[in-house]
Amino acid sequence: MNVADSEVVASILSPFYSITDSLKEAELILLNTCSVRDNAEQRIRKRLRELAALKKKNKSLLIGLLGCMAERIKEQLLEEEKSLDFIVGPDAYRSLPELIEKASLQIVSFNVALSEEETYDDIEPVRYASNGVSAFIAIMRGCNNFCSYCVVPFTRGRERSRDPKTIIAEAQSLFEKGFREVTLLGQNVNSYCWNETEKKIDFADLTEQIAQISPLLRIRYATSHPKDISDKLLFIMSKYPNICHYIHLPVQSGSNKMLKKMNRIYTREYYLERIKKIKEILPNCAISTDIIAGFCGETEQDHQDTLSMMKEVGYEYAFMFKYSVRGGTAAAEKYEDDIPEELKIKRLEEVIALQQHLSLQSNKRDIGKTVTVLIEGISKRSDQHLFGRNPQNKVCVFPKKEYKIGDYAEVKIIKCTAGTLLGETI
Ligand code: 5AD
Ligand code: SF4
User: Fold this and answer.
1) What is the pTM of this model?
2) Do 82 and 192 fall into the same domain?
3) What residues does ligand 1 touch, defined as CB less than 6 Å away?
4) For burial by CB atoms within 10 Å, which of 108, 201, 280, 389 has the most?
């Protein structure tokens, strides 16, 4: 989501600035921040200290902070980080030219107002860091779920969906420019909803309309909340081969007690029923997840429930975190952060080790299969090899031959690691 936001910001500022890779040349540096976990905030603090040194050398350099962290701790940041000239929250990017103007007159200012309507739907993002093959499209903003550990509903505001006409036009225009994959983004894409006068468009309808742009345009989406993933969407996915059979379905914990405390709304049994349905309708669908280790009051049994859940689903991939308290959330207010740091780390390591094993098992099952890979670039390890992803979102590396970036290639898998499939084109 932050990449998509940065692309909107680049578009808003394009009449005034061009983008440079060189920090030394920059007249304006913007840091787009995330507050979801504490370590992301710590990294930004470190970066700001490094940039303060740059500012001493170049007095006219302006530094601005964007995104969630701006929302969460604006006063504290302006007080503590003297190198900052302005701060702007995720719903206020349109005011950037004004804030920059003030900053150039040495007036420190901020705009962190959250909006119930802003979706930036009329702004065509500038894909400045893109590989020219795959792009993100933000289809909604904000979140109404209030998971007890999560700061997002406070930093990004209420959920709102973007006009489907603008989303489809953006996907169409990307396809015409040569892009071959779009990832539809939102905190909870399955609750996408747009009311036209006579009919309602939900996420499944939207996905179907984008799938019809061209069979050569791949569609991915993230993130799905387990409570909202519908059979209708699964059937649409099975109908269009260009909708990738890959679902990111954060589970967070395998323990019902923890899920309740996390305010996740579903139970372990409900989640497993959804997995069963996914595998029934989309037998080759890859599933990834998010897991939090060491949430408030997590017992050894709760932790074991998470491990057994991971085995039962057999996730292809997982994003794994240890719990960090976020000020202002329900968990920060109601529950004690009582799992000692060493135990959080130990449990997280167990979760990571199990996932490594599951990812390797899953990749081994692909050996001998032929998969369709959308080529994204040249392999980091060898310029004679290309890499891309198969529909299940697995990275595949194979010898270059006559292929080029943006092509589709049929690749027979020969070897694998836990993170990569290695093959030959056929
Ligand atoms: N501590 C640890 N992980 C968190 N996440 C969100 N909030 C926290 C927190 N306070 C994780 C969840 C979520 C992902 C984006 O970040 O797993 O799905
Ligand atoms: Fe945070 Fe829950 Fe919303 Fe995801 S669904 S952004 S975890 S509140």
Assistant:
1) 0.95
2) no
3) 36-37, 149-150, 250, 252, 290, 292, 321, 323-324, 326
4) 389
